[in-house]
Amino acid sequence: MNSPRRPLRVLTLGLISLALLGCAADDPIAVGVTRQTTTTVVGATDAEAELAVFPPVNPDVSRPKTIVDLRGQASVLIDIRGNAFNERFFRVDPGTEIVFENNGVNPHNVTASAEGAFETIPKEALEESRQALILDAEGDYPFFCSLHGTETRGQTGYVIVGDG
Amino acid sequence: MMRRSLIQLLALLALLGLVAAACGDDSDSTTADTTTTAADIADEVDDPPVEDEVDDEVVDEPEEPELGYTVRNVPADYATIQDAVDAAEPGDLVLIAEGVYHEAVIVQTDNIVIRGMDRNTVILDGEHADGFENGVIVFSNGVAVENLTVRNYTGNGLFWTGDYGSDIFVEGYRASYVTAHNIGVYGMYAFNAVDGQIDNAYASGSDDSSYYIGQCNPCNALLYNVEGAHSQLGYSGTNSTGTTVAASYFHDNLIGVVPNSQDGEELAPNAGTHIVGNLIQNNNNPDVPSRNTGFQLGLGSGVVLAGVTNNIVERNTIVGNTRGGVIAIDWIDGVFGSGNGRDFMVMDNIIRDNTITGSTLGTDILVGVQDATNGGQGNCFSNNTVGETNPLNAQDVLPCDGPDTSELTSVDTLLALFNLEPFEPLDYRDAPVPEYNFESMPGDPATDPPMPATDVPMQVDLDALVAPEPR
User: Chain B contact for A15, CB < 8 A?
Assistant: First the structure.
């Protein structure tokens, strides 16, 4: 099913690190620090963008069988620890703030498994503070941490945006 | 007639030998296939050479003994290590010739051995480049890496990992005669993995630890005769119950050896690390990579038992660590971790028969608990050669064969005592590069059969280990 391409936004929240004092999971999320906007596959030329399917697809990654339904929330918090995303496979509404918080021992990033679906959230950013990813375009967005996994193995995740 | 029967008997014996061998036939391999199939044997039984064609001197040419595995040579047969690994079948040997390989290898096949022809001249080099997080990342069981060097990766040098989200554990891993240096996070790393060993290895220049075993219970893991230096931690083991660190050398790190419990990983607490027969010396180095401000508080510590239970520290030489020789301390997540996890009490650990000297704060032994009225929490110290301790006369008030009569200092007070001066950690890329004169694997790497990591860890007579001499 075709749906109009809608702006894809990656919102980076630059909360001051509260690492030494603790950063409770239910702290309010500050809004409006750095916002990136794009309506095309990341890195695509204008000509490529005209032809590109969005979101892009990685044929090696299949939709998981079990998906946790997190629709109906303006913001969802994904806890990262034990080299895993918790929740790992989930569904959200378009425009939901997907907030990643690294409470683990190791550094982590969030990398799109289909190249160009969204810009990587780098490990340095997640070491400092929670980072939010906002996906407006409906579709499937598999992702992984490239330090602890590949597109198909190890530390992987999958978010479905919308009802499809 | 007798000759025909003899030929048939020999063919039958060869067939039985083939069935006993653990060898697969790889019809996709680009290397010469040395496997003889059962069909070939059957053909010979049915169609033996006719008598008048048989040479009187030779009935059957003796065949090359079956290897039982395929050797996949890099670069002679495969241009890249990844190509050879992808072609390998369980039991195969990926044999790498001298050279520098700019690769990040992914292993998904069980029971293969990746071996360098020479430890010091077979080098996997990530060049600190994007996309080169891991020198070798292994998702499969029984994989061994030996006799080579990995360097300059942004994440991990060697990494065996299960997938906890799917409850998948790696079973069987081994690193032997491997060097890993200037690696971003961990030199050699096993996570959600059981039954493994790292032996005769060197790792340095990582901003977390040279060696890390994490999230397993029971881990059944052994570090033996390894050296860890110039990292934040020489060894770290988070929630890794059932790990032994033996006959190894940790020096010039921020902290030497740190088994710990924390909620940053699953399977907390760490309820059993055996630290025996090691030299843990001069871990006072602020000029190291370091990513954890909590651990930076421990600069100058030999062994830190952080929130662990039932660990044993015995027959080690722990000297020249100026902040503290052996420190048993509660894990306070708000101070040492993210602040979003539980605290863990350090309890029931045994520290005995060590030489522990060299602290400058009167803390060859140091016990720090959150609730100072809670006594020693079962931690005990006996028969160690020590200088000053905190509590005073720690072995008298916290003996392993007597009552706890201690009066302890709270963690808050101890942290104030440390009075750490802020320092700027080193970038891991700038950590010292070791000289490449490490001992290579014994035997002949070109011809020795591969030994996948299926019967690991090796058995070691730990009772025979003695505290080593300082260097």
Answer: no
